[in-house]
From TrEMBL:
Keywords: Membrane, Transmembrane, Transmembrane helix. The chain crosses the membrane at residues 6-26. It holds the Pfam family FixS. The lineage of its organism: Bacteria, Pseudomonadati, Pseudomonadota, Gammaproteobacteria, Oceanospirillales. The keyword Transferase does not apply. This is Cbb3-type cytochrome oxidase maturation protein. InterPro entries: Cyt_oxidase_maturation_cbb3.
Amino acid sequence: MDILYLLIPLAIILAGVATWAFFWSVKQGQFDDLESPAHRILFDDDDALIPDDARIKKDEGKDKHS
């Protein structure tokens, strides 16, 4: 029973720190843009990883898709 005198204030302090961290991150703008980081991986520059013989030339790509 004596452990409750330690655990209850410890839980309140931990909840207060978590609440402070949440409001601090909201104030800093951590939750402003939730879409861009998920789409950023799709637009990485991977041209250096494509072998030369597998590359589509820009002129050929326009003719095939037009």
